[in-house]
Design a protein that fits this description.
The protein is built from five helices and seven strands. With about 210 residues, the chain is of the alpha/beta class. The chain has two domains: about 5-85, Beta-grasp domain (Ubiquitin-like (UB roll), Roll), CATH 3.10.20; about 90-205, Orthogonal Bundle (DNA polymerase, domain 1), CATH 1.10.150.120. The strands form two sheets. The chain has a five-stranded mixed β-sheet with strand order 2-1-5-3-4, with helices on both faces. The chain has a two-stranded parallel sheet with strand order 6-7. α2 (about 90-100) crosses α5 (about 160-175). Mean pLDDT is about 85; it is low at about 175-200. Bound molecules: FE2/S2 (inorganic) cluster (2 copies). One FE2/S2 (inorganic) cluster (FES) binds near residues 103, 108 and 156.
Length: about 210
Amino acid sequence: MTEAIPGTRVRLQVNGQPHELDLDNRTTLLDALREHLGLTGAKKGCDHGQCGACTVLADGRRINACLVFAVAAQDVEIQTIEGMSYDGTPHPMQQAFLDRDAFQCGYCTPGQICSAVGMLEEFDQGWPSAVTAGEQPTALEADEVRERMSGNLCRCGAYMNIVPAILDVAVSSARGLTPPGPPAPRSAAPQKPPAGGAAPGSRAVTS
Ligand code: FES
Ligand code: FES
């Protein structure tokens, strides 16, 4: 006798839109997005949390969608690359990738862009990285960007242009020139910023 596969009515909030899906409990967020909602921007590279191609934002925080069950993503606002542009205007990070030609095949690019947007938010919150001297970062240098983006692999090796593209956005936003972006998620702040983290907008940038 064939055993019934347990399923659940899952409510997801994606790019500002509510969705209800009847899903096998084992369905990952990545498969829910790609196979059930038709949002194929987030890519399946390794399906094991190793490559970052599936990166999306959950309440503004970057996550690997292949490592999260859809049933566990019901209480957060999910933002995918499809929700990055606003009213026909590309997100500044998307525009910077275009301006810097920061891709070849483009397979990793949606994950790179989502990850970069989340990474800059983490930096503004004062989160240190493995190469940060001291407890808090004071300047966003190329080494910091490389380390903080090390979870996003590019098989084409476009890193030479990806890092400058991210720094372009960091520079413009540090100068208060951030172009219009997508609507703010319900909670854009990472959950546990270190005590005394740098205030948003205080980002210093050196390339
Ligand atoms: S597909 Fe999720 S990390 Fe590679
Ligand atoms: S642009 Fe091809 S994998 Fe990154």
